[in-house]
């Protein structure tokens, strides 16, 4: 049975007696309210309705929710600093104190924190930096790994399961993580596409977005882009409200916010909290951390929890704050901001000899005294005609009223009979995978299309590189020097494909925290993001491949005819695909762009070194041969060599050309003919100035390109791209849990 707390649970006021309620089965409940939510039949009922405006027979038809948390404790291990003197053992000791210094120390971030909040209220967690505000919000939002957090978090008296919590809650991070080139309306519309179910018509989603824009008070900025350092957009306060909006688009029961007013001026902070107040009054439980609220902001808050180094030093309403500190012996002066005084006093106590121990103990006595003065037995949520609902039944009833529009469907079985039951269908994701991929791709392309300079720079780099190569290796002939120059061109060109892909590194690093925020509460699948990321990249890779091939193929004088040109384009595309996938995988591993560039450049240099151009495969030491087969440059390099030199009718060394690239190449033509005649006599073979001595097959054999055909090399290159995309998926799966340990 859920508990309920009065609006002023910290003073001696008596709780209002709960009115008697009519007995009603859940089936009758759903039947009575089925006319409120008809979105499945396409009528014009508003998607979002205030739960506090619906009455039946004199009783509020809302389904109250109470979030309670008891004895939350969270410890982390802090290892001692590595010092030079500790590197050398000083002998065994049996002193337990000395032995203890070798083990990691434990730091308590939360120590037996308890409290509760109900729908319609805002609970604010206050404290100095390092007091545990964000940690408490993370604990309530299930953002601490299972097993690390002790204590219980319950909704209406029932322990919340992780899957259920993801559906009925939202978490707003401290930073505004938004796509800069999308407008406010587009940002919220994409959030609606992710969080609201496919069964909801698009017209309903648009109505929900428009209602939310009005609720957030950002109607004048609806058509303005978010903006960033290089593009002027909306103000900081509007950005914060948009960040809140994308997380409440599905109208959650629980809303957690980590310092939503941080970095805002007083007016913007007040507007943000005013929006949160309206959200709470619509039937949500709002819990947030806040640093130092102004007097106006304080007037909007219903409950306060002050923390000091993981301990509760005050828990109650803002109205009782003055009496609490007065009885503690530190009365708040008149005309003084109550929270500022309390925070300053707590900071002074923290640096004193006794710390805040006295204030912590006084708060415990204060809480006990309140319980004794109230003299109330455990209560059920008030004003509810259905006090015996389980948590799932309460959520199902809320869904039937239009609350939690993406949380699932409440299905009544058995009609309106007394034995009717209800099942709550809570999908893990609001939409099927193909809808997620479509929406992610649309958002990514829209954001990129509004930054054409980024793609333009990439195209320019490829075209300029191709132009330089074309002019340096202009119209290569089929002489031995031409062969050597072709080898150099192919090695540089294929490695260029991979180096050009390094610009894909910042893409995910910039989106990482947006991705973590959206997937933390199952806005979409990680696999959908990986597939969308790959699909969006393909058109640009095709364009870059055609641009490079057109710039170099005819200018360099490559052979193979139309089929050779087609394969040349395909292997360039495969190289771009493989390189882009490799860099994308690294972006999921490295923490910063600078470190990522260092790693990419180093690894690609190793790939080129072991590709077979600088050192033949047969000459690579056995202990490094494995790197030769892992080299991404090896396979496209060998593929273009076979594409160029596989023509059996083409000759690359004739007669006296055998002396080219040797000291004998400087001799007069007559002497080279005489030497060629002497060689012919010695070998007993007639070798004239037109005799073909080296074909393309000989060049491939000399280069060690004999293991795979060019089509197999193409296949391996493409397969590498898929392999790294799979690895990217696992890095997202394992590295973006977004939970403390």
UniProtKB/TrEMBL annotation:
Signal peptide start and end residues: none
Subcellular location: Membrane
Keyword GTP-binding: no
Membrane topology term: Multi-pass membrane protein
Residues of the ABC transporter domain: 82-334
Primary location class: membrane
Gene3D superfamilies reported in the protein's UniProt record: P-loop containing nucleotide triphosphate hydrolases
Keywords on record: ATP-binding, Membrane, Nucleotide-binding, Transmembrane, Transmembrane helix, Transport
One Pfam family from the record: ABC_tran
Keyword Metal-binding included in the entry's annotation: no
Domain of life: Eukaryota
Sequence intervals crossing the membrane: 455-476, 488-509, 530-553, 565-586, 593-615, 714-735
PANTHER family membership: ABC TRANSPORTER G FAMILY MEMBER 1, ABC TRANSPORTER G FAMILY MEMBER 28
Protein name listed in UniProt: ABC transporter G family member 1
Annotated source species: Camelina sativa
Species lineage: Eukaryota, Viridiplantae, Streptophyta, Embryophyta, Tracheophyta
